[in-house]
Amino acid sequence: MFSERFQRTVHITRHAAQRMAERGMDDVLLLDLLDTGTVKHKDDARLWVFKAYAERNDNLLCAAVVLETLLVVKTVMHHFALED
Question: Among 13, 25, 31, 34, which is disulfide-ready with 20 (CB 3.0 to 4.6 Å)?
């Protein structure tokens, strides 16, 4: 999988893959989230990408990622809430 937005190959950790399965997310949905969701940076390398999907009833979907030579998806969440 390749993210056009980040211009990197996407690596999904085992933990993230397990959470995707639990939350009914497939690779197509994850790639849409990464490429079209809103980005909030924690620092230069760590960030969250989140997006609401009207057809889902679980609030915002979010991916916690690390920008390295790859785009590493560490986990995925639902019912995500932004903290200030």
Answer: 25
**Predicted model pTM:** 0.89
CATH of the domain at 71: 3.30.2310
Q: In the β-sheet with 60-67, what is the strand arrangement from edge to edge? A: 2-3, 8-12, 71-80, 60-67, 46-52, 38-41
Give residue 22's domain range: 2-80
| C-alpha 84: how far from chain center | 19
Instruction: Yes or no: say if 50 and 44 are a contact pair by the CB < 8 Å rule.
Output: no
Q: How many domains does the chain have?
A: 1
Determine the Cα–Cα distance for residues 60 and 45; give it in Å rounded to an integer: 22
Task: Tell me the sheet residues that pair with 49.
Answer: 39, 63
State the DSSP H helix or E strand holding residue 35, giving kind and residue range, or none if neither: helix 27-36
